[in-house]
Amino acid sequence: MSQNTALEIVATSGACARRAFAAGADRIEACEALELGGISPGPEVLEDILEHRPALGVHALLRNRPGDFHYGEADLQVMERQARRLARTGVDGLVLGAVDASGTVDLKAVARMAAAGLEVNPELEITMHRAIDASTDPVASVTQLLDLGIHRVLTRGGQDCAGEGLEVIERMVQAAGGRIQIMAGGCMKARDIGPALRAGAAAVHFSAKTQHAGTIRVSEQHVEQLRNMLNALTD
Question: Which family does this protein fall into (predicted)?
Answer without folding.
Answer: Belongs to the CutC family.
